[in-house]
Amino acid sequence: MAIRIFFLILLFNFRFRSSLSGQTNSMESVPDLQKSMYMAVDGYPCVRLANLSGEIGCSNPGRDKVVAPIIKYKNNIELAQPSAILLSMDDVQGFFSRISNDSSFARNVGGVLVESGIEIQHKLKGFSPAQKFPQAEFAPYLNKTYEWNPIGSGIMWKSYNFPVFLLSESSTSALQEIAMKNEKAEKAYTTNVAEFDVVMQTTKVGTHDSESCLTEETCLPLGGYSVWSAVPPINNSSSNQSKPIILTVASMDAASFFRDKSLGADSPISGVISLLAAVDALSHVDGLDELNKQLVFLVFTGESWGYLGSRRFLLELDQQSYAVHGLNSTVIQLVMEIGSTGKGLNQGNKNFFAHTKVSSGANEAFDALKLAQESLKSEGVTVSNASSSNPGIPPSSLMAFLRKNSSTSGIVLEDFDTVFANKFYHSHLDDSANINSSSIVAAASLVARTLYVLASDKKDLTSSALRAINVNASLVEELINCMLKCNPGLSCELVSSYIASINTCPSHYVGVVLGEPSSTPSPNQVDDVSRFVWNFLADRTSTPKSTTSVCSEDCGKNGGLCIRAELDGKGVCVISTTRYVPAYSTRLKFDSGTWKVLPPNSSDPMGMLDPVWTESNWNTIGLRVYTIQDAAYDRLVLLGGITVTVFAYLAIVLTRAYITKALKQD
Amino acid sequence: MTVAAGIGYALVALGPSLSLFISVISKKPFLILTLLSSTLVWLISLIILSGIWRAFLPLNSTTWWPFAILIFTSVAFQEGLRLLFWKVYKILEDILDAFADRVSKPRLYLTDKMQIALAGGLGHGVAHAVFFCLSLLTPAFGPATYFVDRCSQIPFFLVSAIIALAFATVHTFSMVIAFNGYAEGNKVDQVFVPSVHLAAGMMTLINFAYGGCVIGIPLLFLMAILTLLHCGRMVWRRLTENQRQGNS
User: Fold this and answer.
1) Do B15 and A648 touch (CB under 8 A)?
2) Does the beta carbon of B32 lie under 8 angstroms from any beta carbon of chain A?
3) B-chain residues near A642 (CB < 8 A)
4) Mean pLDDT throughout B84-111?
5) On chain B, which terminus has fewer CB atoms closer than 10 Å, C or N?
6) By the 8 A CB rule, do A529 and A252 touch?
7) Is 70 exceeded by the pLDDT of residue A309?
8) Which residues lie closer than 8 Å to A119 by C-beta, 6 or more apart?
9) How confident is the model at residue A550 (pLDDT cuts 50, 70, 90)?
10) What share of chain A in percent tops pLDDT 90?
């Protein structure tokens, strides 16, 4: 018997020596075990937003986490139980239309996971969850059904009672494997599930519109800080502000279905990059003080959510608040807006379109553009009037200016004519691959030279002076790398020489207003991109000083500003006019710690149309994937344990009785 | 998994030990003390062993022979400690017998001595189960379950509970056999206990192979049943012998 056991052991020795291969993940403690049981998935959530009449976006349906088995979406799939659907980008359209049409299908959707990947991006011709005419209610003309964005499906403007996540690329492949494992169902009693934690405070408390949620403090209003800067710096001491102002405007906020993946490369960040590059080009020009007009550059935020930046700016101009000190709305001669400029490249030529409402100021601006175009002929840059079949200007901040004062002269420079050239408008796929840096450089050159033409006297204008204004193409490349890519992202050299950024991956979602809005906000109230733009503009528009001094208390006294203040060292004091302007709805007022919705006022017609967007608060947002056993199996194990215990007890009692009986007998 | 499964696994590992405790040990306070002290001794032996082996950790999990050496030295140390435990018990037995003589009460019966050995063994077994299974069981009360690559048919917690049950059985009854072997001077029993302990320990190495747990665990249970049967046979023999001696 012993020999048999010996041979058995020898046999197994040989067997397992050959089959030992592969590394097991080394676990050294129970917390390690716990961590390997639950796989945390990184993804970008879609969150709950509210307006005055209802809600949009996604959230968990209640206070609890949603746990659902992962299933890959196929056309005409039937769901037997609430499931977590793994969706590829091709199927997004079909899926969401099925949700709105088929309520029995929608009931069984526990959560949605959207795949992402480079191959997916190349295959897709276009995707836009925005409306076909974004923010049509603010248009200063009657035709609100014109389709500027024909690809727009409008899915981000609907409300869903299930969580939706966009997966990162690494998570996508992991989850595809898991969905396949679920399908094959090797072990009948286990399933791989996804656990969604997107519990929104507005759902918990039951406040489903902006007014109630702001009163209950379960949400915060959308908004941020716009930045403006004057070239050359406005001299406070001169009392006569009679120089006419040319306002150059761009917007720096994007939107998308997934809040943290709003890049907006073409719409609208390409415009901001063009503006910053144009400021940089003009800063190298001599004799800016002698120009006849004052150039002011303005970068708005919050434009995607009801033109918050531009409306608030116009209100502050009326109120002559400190934020806009030095600007007088009566002397604004022209508003030149730089819209999307990243897709103007067409077979080597860079074509742009000037959208305008006919007026003398606009005509003058268009003539200046043509002059600038002449000087850039060798680079193949053209600018043409937009088609007259357009109902008017495209969705832009100029709409807010025109609604305020319909006689404003304005011109919008865009890379499209009748419909958006951007096939990924307001989607997470509008990234750096969707734009071309040479197109942005061309637009910046156009704008810089046009502004010079407009600001200088006709007789002083020489073509050599015009040709001396050149945009730094490597600056544009660097800005694209910093503002539109994760690597290097906001930790790139250019940005980190001005601010200490919180995040590396840039996101241009406007965010919520933190604390009390003020014209001198503290750095933790302003987001990274706004702080970078402020520092950059302050630096480039500053009058060169013979000595750069370190910041001290008297910096502010002589019209000075403290830039690079977040880095080691106290920062540098420069003479510049660069300020923050709060950007939030004109229908809101921050009063003793809470936000209040003001009643509609006929003197603010755009405020009457404003939906007043707010974003719900939340505790945590997370996504985990793990394996669970069927409840029947769990109960079987419990039964097994109880059986083993009871059986052992009976055996012991019987043995004891037997022994005592047998001993007594003898 | 859930609370139900967690309790189930805990019962699988420690249920029979619990039954033994309630039916036999809890009746006599001295046995409870014996159980607690033997648990402590076993844990101290683990602490000393881990202190010695700390320098060599972590072991490379792709080769099996460092683990074989680990198991061999641990089993050898614990068997040595068992001998020490026996010596201390002998001294205690003499003290108890002397005390019984003084107060004119009967000395320790054979069944008493066997119960003390059983309590000692149970202490070892409970310590093993608590240390190697119960301490890992906290994640089992959560919603997720876990499967190891190399044993993908059975959930990890079930495997560890079953192994703990087998070892608890082996420890409990081999103490009875060992004490009897030392008392009688029976060489077979004296060799049987360390070899079964070593064999059971080495059998867990089979779990290293892919799918090895399907073979390793039944073999482990074979060892446990072997111990149980041998113990039963020995106990029966001793008690009937004693009975005959008492009568004659």
Assistant:
1) yes
2) no
3) 8, 11, 15
4) 90
5) C
6) yes
7) yes
8) none
9) confident
10) 64
Residue A583: strand, helix, or coil: strand
Chain segment A45-80, per-residue pLDDT in tens: 999 999 999 999 999 999 999 999 999 999 888 888
Mean pLDDT over A548-558 rounds to 75
Strand A190-200 vs strand A618-629: parallel, antiparallel, or unpaired? antiparallel
Please enumerate, as own/partner, the contacts of A185-191 that have beta carbons within 8 Å and a separation of 24 or more: A187/B153, A189/A629, A189/A630, A189/A632, A189/A633, A190/A627, A190/A628, A190/A629, A190/A630, A190/B145, A190/B147, A191/A69, A191/A627, A191/A628, A191/A630
| Residue whose pair of structure tokens reads 């890959």 in the numeric block | A72
Contact assessment for residue A444 and residue A281, using Cβ atoms and an 8 Å cutoff: yes
ipTM score of complex: 0.92
Q: In this predicted structure, what is the pLDDT of residue A300?
A: 96
Q: Which residue would you say has higher pLDDT here, A21 or A148?
A: A148
Residues 165-194 of A with CB under 8 A from B: 187, 190
In sequence order, what are the residues at sequence separation of 6 or more whose Cβ sits closer than 8 angstroms to the Cβ of residue A637?
Answer: B4, B5, B8, B9, B12, B158
Cα distance between residue A585 and residue A27, in whole Å? 53
In sequence order, what DSSP letters do the residues of A117-139 get, joined into one string? -HHHHHH-S--B-S-SSTTGGG-
- Give the residues across from A550 on adjacent strands: A572
The encoded tokens of residue B138 equal 């906290």
Q: Say what percent of chain B tops pLDDT 90.
A: 69
| B109 compared with A279, residue with greater pLDDT | A279
Tens digit of each residue's pLDDT (9 = 90 or more) over A462-485: 788 888 899 999 999 999 999 999
For A264: left if phi > 0, alpha if psi spans -120 to 50, otherwise beta; the answer is left
Mean residue pLDDT of chain B comes to 90
Q: In sequence order, what DSSP letters do the residues of B76-132 get, joined into one string?
A: HHHHHHHHHHHHHHHHHHHHHHHHHHHTT-----HHHHHHHHHHHHHHHHHHHHHHH
Q: For residue A609, which amino acid is it?
A: L
Average pLDDT over residues B35-63: 89
Say if the Cβ atoms of B243 and A666 lie within 8 Å. yes
Position A593, amino acid: G
Q: With helix as H, strand as E and coil as C, how does A435-471 read?
A: CCHHHHHHHHHHHHHHHHHHHCCHHHCCHHHHHCCCC
Which tokens hold the place of B38?
Answer: 């033997």
DSSP secondary-structure letter at A553? G
Q: Which of B8, B199, B208 is the closest to A20 by Cβ?
A: B208
Q: Which of A5, A190, A653 sits opposite B23 (nearest CB)?
A: A653
Q: Which residue has the tokens 């022979």?
A: B65
Helix (H) or strand (E) holding A247: strand A245-251
The two beta strands, A588-591 and A594-597, are antiparallel
Q: Is the pTM of this model over 0.90?
A: no
Quick one: pLDDT at residue A557?
74
Q: Distance, in angstroms, between B114 CA and closest chain A CA?
A: 13
Nearest by Cα to B196 from B216, B177, B218: B177
Interior angle at CA A614, CA A609 and CA A618, nearest 5? 165
pLDDT digits (tens, 9 = 90+) for A609-624: 999 999 999 999 999 9
Contact B135 A666 (CB under 8 A): no
Measured between beta carbons, the chain B residues lying within 8 angstroms of A12 are: 206, 212, 215
Residues 6+ apart with CB under 8 A from A366: A354, A356, A385, A411
The tally of CA atoms less than 13 A away on the side-chain side of residue A382 is 12
Note the pLDDT tens digit of each residue in A328-369. Answer: 888 899 999 999 999 999 888 999 999 998 777 888 888 888
Chain B residues inside the 8 Å CB shell of A641 = 7-12, 15
Look at the block and give the residue holding tokens 């400029």. Answer: A341
Residue reference for tokens 């052991």: A9
